[in-house]
Specification:
heterodimer; A: 174 residues; alpha+beta; 2 helices; B: 4 helices
C-alpha cells in the first residue's frame, strides 16, 4: 500500500519535473524567437541599404553619371550617350560591377507602341538600354534622369528624361 | 477500504494522463506557431524611401518644352518661372507646362490602378508665397514613404507615396 503511494508520488514528481522543464524550454524558445526575428529585420534592412548603395553607386559611377556635361553636377543622372558607348563594350565589364544584369528603362515621355531595345542604329528612338544581361536574380531599381545631347535646328540642347535603372545580382555579391 | 484506494489511484492516474496530454497538445501548437513564425519571409516594403527621394531628384532634372532665350528649361527652372508668374520664351505658361509634365511623370512612374502595390501618391510644391502645384491620385493609406526637397528661392517639394 505504502509502496504504491510512493510510486504515485514519484510519478507525480516526474510529471512535475517534465512540466517545469517544458515551461523553461518554451520560455527559452520565446526569447530566441524574439532575438531571431530582430536579427532577420536587421538583415533585411542591411540588404535594402546594400541594394540602395549598389544602385546609387552604379548610377553615380564615372561610366554612367552625367558629370558636368549637363550643367551642374547632378546626382542620379545618367548620361545616355556614354551608356550607349559602354553597351558596345559591355563584355569587358561583365565582372567589373559584380552584378548579373543592368537595365535602364525609359519611363517618361511614354513611347507609343512596343517598348524598343536600344541599339546603335535606333538610338535615341528607343526605350530600353540593356548593358548586362546574365539572367534575373534579386532585382533592385531606382529612379534616374536619363540625359543626352540633342541637335535641334542646328543647336545642341540637353534633353533629360525619366528612367529607372534596374540592377539584379545574386547573393554572392552581398 | 482497498477498493476505495484503487479508485483514488485510478483517478489520480487519469488526471496525470490528462495533464500530460494537455502539455503535449500545447507544446505541439507552440511548435507549429514557432515554425510558422520563423519561416515567414521578412516583409519587403513596397515603396522604399530612397525611391521617393530619387524620384524627386530625377523629375527636377526633366527637360520640358518651356524655353528661355537660350535653352529648354528643366522642371526645377519651370517651378521658379511659375512661382514668379513668368511666361516661357516660346509663349507657354510655365504653370501649365509644370502641371502637364508632372501629371504625366507621376502617372507613368507610380501605377495606382487596382491590384497595384502602390495605392496612391501626393505631390506638393509650395513657395513662400503660394501653393505652386498639388497633385494627388488614388487612396491615402496609413503606410507611406516620402521625401522632402528644399530648393533655393524658398521652394519646397513634398512627395508621398501610399502603399
Amino acid at each position: 500500500m505504502k509502496q504504491k503511494k510512493a510510486q504515485m508520488k514519484i510519478q507525480q514528481m516526474a510529471f512535475m519535473l517534465l512540466a517545469v522543464t517544458l515551461f523553461f524550454v518554451f520560455v527559452g524558445l520565446f526569447i530566441f524567437m524574439i532575438a531571431y526575428s530582430g536579427l532577420k529585420d536587421s538583415a533585411s534592412t542591411l540588404e535594402e541599404k546594400n541594394a540602395l548603395l549598389l544602385v546609387t553607386k552604379l548610377a553615380n559611377s564615372p561610366e554612367f553619371s552625367c558629370g558636368g556635361s549637363f550643367g551642374n553636377e547632378k546626382t542620379n543622372c545618367i548620361d545616355a550617350d556614354k551608356v550607349m558607348a559602354l553597351k558596345t563594350n559591355s563584355n569587358k565589364y561583365s565582372n567589373f560591377w559584380g552584378v548579373d544584369s543592368i537595365e535602364i528603362r525609359k519611363i517618361y515621355p511614354v513611347a507609343y507602341g512596343v517598348r524598343v531595345e536600344c541599339t546603335l542604329t535606333n538610338y535615341p528612338q528607343c526605350d530600353i538600354i540593356k548593358i548586362l544581361d546574365n539572367g534575373i536574380s534579386s532585382e533592385f531599381s531606382n529612379f534616374v534622369s536619363l540625359c543626352r545631347k540633342e541637335n535641334i535646328e542646328g543647336k545642341v540642347h540637353d534633353k533629360c528624361e525619366i528612367a529607372k535603372i534596374t540592377v539584379s545580382y545574386g547573393g554572392d555579391n552581398e | 477500504m482497498g477498493e476505495i484506494m484503487n479508485k483514488k489511484n485510478k483517478k489520480a492516474q487519469e488526471e496525470m494522463v490528462g495533464f500530460a496530454l494537455i502539455i503535449i497538445v500545447v507544446s505541439i501548437i507552440l511548435m507549429i506557431f514557432l515554425a510558422f513564425y520563423l519561416n515567414r519571409e521578412p516583409k519587403k516594403e513596397t515603396v522604399e524611401s530612397y525611391e521617393a527621394e530619387s524620384f524627386t531628384q530625377a523629375f527636377l532634372q526633366y527637360t520640358t518644352s518651356c524655353t528661355d532665350n537660350f535653352e529648354f528649361l528643366n522642371v526645377q527652372d519651370v517651378i521658379y518661372e511659375c512661382d514668379i508668374r513668368n511666361t516661357c520664351a516660346n509663349g507657354e505658361d510655365p504653370c501649365e507646362v509644370l502641371e502637364r509634365n508632372l501629371k504625366g511623370i507621376l502617372g507613368e512612374s507610380w501605377n495606382v490602378k487596382t491590384g497595384s502595390p502602390v495605392k496612391g501618391y501626393e505631390l506638393n510644391i509650395v513657395s513662400s508665397k503660394w501653393v505652386i502645384l498639388n497633385i494627388s491620385e488614388g487612396q491615402k493609406t496609413v503606410n507611406s514613404k516620402g521625401s522632402a526637397q528644399y530648393l533655393p528661392k524658398d521652394v519646397d517639394i513634398y512627395f508621398v507615396a501610399y502603399y
